[in-house]
């Protein structure tokens, strides 16, 4: 059997899981929407149908003060049980178990009613928490037990207690956020009384036939975090208190080390879980950046963990497990760890979805039903928008011919995947390529769709997905053979010196700075070097697992990042990943300049002004990263054919390279054409 270890059953004693795959907790935003639980049930049902062994829901608060946001979801009263039953009933149509995660935000609660062990404000939250009284601590423990009992009535198979990522329980455990002098603070044993009391209270309330998962922070990645001896000791106490499974938690939300972004190496933290093996007898779950069945199988087969947790991979493809079972991993729509449509949405109070799968969390709204009037469609351009539309339209029964002028599919993704830390974009190109073969879309490479080609065949409609072209910048000297577009650099068409000026400090500029500095030596593909770059202690002998970083060497190359705006460079980068990109360019010594006026480029360098003061940047080359323009060269000619013409992706709106918008627009059009 393919992926034998990953897909083997796991006996928990009180019940058995059909495989070793846990769909990790993700808050979707549906929890707070009107009729959201109906949509949530459809979301989870697709994943259960897709074969996952155990699902953990997004975080549900045990009380009002523990909510993530003022309108956050909680389970505290019997009348709230009914909506949860929709979810459990949908999941239990299949051989899948589901646990509700209980999450008290503590000082991360984004509202003025939040509470914490001590009155210490989180650096990522404007609201200062109030310190919990002894009575409030005890009441909160009862709230956890009550919420667990209600979840059992709702049909859940268990609960996951969120004890990591810097939320309330983690705040009690660590001296960083707990300076209490009562029974709930002081030495490590006292600081652990809160989580242990919660587990004991839950077990007493729900009985023995109920799964209790504890998400244990094994690597805090913050100052004054736990050391390894403390992690081991707490794990042993938790086992004695009655937990069924221990899940791995990595990093606090306020940590300045990336833990799940695409630049993080695959399975970058499974070694942490492995260190706990043998210390406890309950099953252990490895997590973070496990996104293919091959990686997951290796984690289990090598003995690093008993289960693997994958969250966002199930946004990307609900059929992940079934495809692995059928030995069809090449057909899995792989999570690329971009965060753009999932975490960025959630932290902006929007519904979560997925860049590579816009149906995620929209299962009741985006569907590709068979068309009553199948058409023959010509699609121009095999970038993300063109490929996605072709597959969706084919699913509806249309005959699709996909034209691509170049020798390969991928469009802008072929450039993006060359950026260090964005190698995962390879997977999306692989997925689309394999699905095009499997679904019968006719792909014509090295073939531009022109009016002459159209005259030889019959089509009903034309879909233009011709993408973008680099925006030209009109400055004296920018027509020099020492000035290149970002596309020319990534395509290997540029001869660059060691001193380079990048015009534009948006996403493209930051990507180019990263590309030029690492010069093909991506730390994302080298775990040891990546850990050194970010200062992660592989021995966890230091508190929080932190050591002094050793930034990757960037040789003699000096890069300048310039923008006309006076705002902070990279201000428009992703909400949850922008800080990573800014950190990387800082590590490489990139010099940023804002409020720049460009005068000319000549043999002496780039002549600019900042705040009215003229300066000369002695650079060898200029690379234009100032955005892009829609590639509409053939639009008029297509419209003159008399056929309906639709524009999707960059040819429609040439904003910052936006695959999220392009693929979703492709889905929307395919639904209606």
Automatic annotation (TrEMBL):
Keyword annotations from UniProtKB, A to Z: Flavoprotein, FMN, Iron, Iron-sulfur, Metal-binding, Oxidoreductase
Annotated ranges, domain NADH:flavin oxidoreductase/NADH oxidase N-terminal: 5-327
Residue ranges of domain FAD/NAD(P)-binding in the record: 376-653
InterPro entries the UniProt entry points to: Aldolase_TIM, FAD/NAD-bd_sf, FAD/NAD-binding_dom, NADH:flavin_oxidoreductase, OxRdtase_FMN_N
Keyword Ligase in record: no
Molecular function GO labels: 2,4-dienoyl-CoA reductase (NADPH) activity; FMN binding; iron-sulfur cluster binding; metal ion binding
Cofactor annotation: [4Fe-4S] cluster; FMN
Pfam families on file: Oxidored_FMN, Pyr_redox_2
Biological process terms in GO annotation: fatty acid beta-oxidation, unsaturated, even number, reductase/isomerase pathway
Domain of life, source organism: Bacteria
Family the UniProt entry places it in: In the N-terminal section; belongs to the NADH:flavin oxidoreductase/NADH oxidase family.
Protein name: NADPH-dependent 2,4-dienoyl-CoA reductase
UniProt gene name: fadH
